Amino acid sequence: MVIALLFEEAITMDDVRRAWEAWERYGEGRRPPLWRVLAEQPGIDVEAVRAAAAHAYGFAPADISPYATLAFLEMHAHQFSGTQWERMIELCVLPVAQRMPRISGAGNCWVFATCDPLRPEVHQFLETLKQDRFELVYAPESKLVALFTLLFAPEDEEPAWDDPTPFQARLPDDPPASPRSEQPAGALTFGEYLEWLLERAVGAAGASLVVQDDGRGWTQVVVPVDDGGSSDDDGGSSDDDGVRVRHDPFVRYVQDTLLEARPVASDAARTVLIQRWLEDGLHHFEIQLSASPDASPGRTGAVLHIRAVDVAA
Q1: Is the C or the N end of the chain the one with fewer CB within 10 Å?
Q2: Cα 310 to the center of its chain, rounded Å
Q3: Is-contact 131 277, C-beta < 8 A?
């Protein structure tokens, strides 16, 4: 992501050097991603850094027609409580659309625009909503603030949008030979892929889905088999239906959006609990990130274990 900013000439090597020195001062504990430290440096265009981070992690740019979006918000505002609206304003996250998801069998998908789609607090908040599944897209903070101002303006005032033409948030171009350039056209975003995994975990009858590198840099989903069933070389049955994304960037996405700023159960393997409102109600999931035990050539990187759990058990 930092390379993309250098490629766009949005930052300089001196900026990166200062950010790296500041990043190293955090020590070996819970260091934030380098790009967040970069955004804190004097003279840095914070919005450019956020846009590059959103692009690097596969978040689409928001495509918003201001007055059409305002009409959508006025129609659906009642579905959120006053407390939820206050939290959305605080986090700068705004529902801008509803659509049918690309994942087969899923319910309606709410599209939320935010200036920082990687912020863990945003994901934690959206998990608590009963609006089926959700998708995050990127929009500049200034555009979202303007929409909030229009939506919550006093009745005796008529604030105007400075530019009523539709806009699509601009994301930086990929540098040559970037990992994103290998992603097939029309592939699921990392967020959509995670939702697909959670649906699979619900149907796995308490077994953990193991998400690992397939040896070629893509994700491979394996369900462990205990007694005599058909299994592959990893001691489990493949369960990915050909759905895949780039492994290491997806692991970083999970780490930066779900594992940061949450209680960790153990030091040996980072384990957190998340929740999702699916079509049949509220589900809880245990997500664990650990080092790969597979030493065979090409099998490198971390392994994710995802399991549906009963928190009342």
Answers
A1: C
A2: 24
A3: yes
Higher pLDDT pick, 80 / 175 = 80
User: Would you say 49 and 17 are in contact if contact means Cβ atoms under 8 Å apart?
Assistant: no
pLDDT digits (tens, 9 = 90+) for 105-120: 556 788 999 999 989 8
Euclidean distance between CA atoms 150 and 45, whole angstroms:
26
Q: Looking at the predicted structure, is the pLDDT value of residue 295 above 60?
A: no
For 251-260, what is each residue's pLDDT tens digit?
Answer: 888 888 877 6
Q: 94 to each of 112, 160, 162, 183, 230, how far by Cα in Å?
A: 5, 19, 19, 28, 46
Average confidence score pLDDT of the chain: 77
* AA letter at 73: L
| CATH architecture of the domain covering 63-155 | 2-Layer Sandwich (3.30)
Among 3.30.450.90, 2.60.120.620, 2.40.100.10, 3.60.10.10, name the CATH number for the domain at 190-309. 3.30.450.90
Both tokens of 44, joined, read 């840095």
